[in-house]
């Protein structure tokens, strides 16, 4: 069962979310951050959240600015705003009496939850799935547009048949974001999940994240999985691993 919610982003527009609810009493609560332009209803985000709910962990997943059912213009967003809005989602849940102890992030969202944990005192554990060590890794998605953006300030960016606007401030923001220091000073339990055969974000990123982190830290290889976790049972498996690992930190 999922509960529809809306909450204000850090820049004003309302963000649309779903809270996947456990059937019985919740073991704990989490916020999930989706990949680059994927949205809360992407297979990875949806399946992970639903499986965590089956495991007794309630999860808020939400569309970032200008994506899915959320208001605003995606072009006004950035990595820093994604981080801030993830922290805002935690605040929204905490205010509702659903204290968030766990952050889960897929791909670009994995980098975002590591950074967002620093802004949320209630969070005790962070799980990243296929996350890049450097946020600027997303440039491979739009490298053909870089010259035009640098010259004109923005360019249309086609994603799944939808035209978004990619602006210079987004590029400058990801290039200026230092995740290494945020990993080193995380002071929360960290679980790094990554497929050794991930052709989108190579597994070397997981090694760099793990090496930069301090204990308690854990690494799990999602053998056979693709980056988007589209294979049968891949997302559910990742969620079951996260559920078991996070158990000591949920209460």
UniProtKB/TrEMBL annotation:
Signal peptide interval: none
Domain (Serine aminopeptidase S33): residue spans on this chain: 25-137
InterPro entries from the UniProt entry: AB_hydrolase_fold (IPR029058), FrsA_esterase (IPR050261), Hydrolase_4 (IPR022742)
UniProt-recorded name of the protein: Putative redox protein
Pfam families: Hydrolase_4 (PF12146)
Domain of life: Bacteria
Family to which the UniProt record says this protein belongs: Belongs to the AB hydrolase superfamily.
Keyword set, alphabetical order: Hydrolase
Organism: Microlunatus flavus
GO molecular function: carboxylic ester hydrolase activity
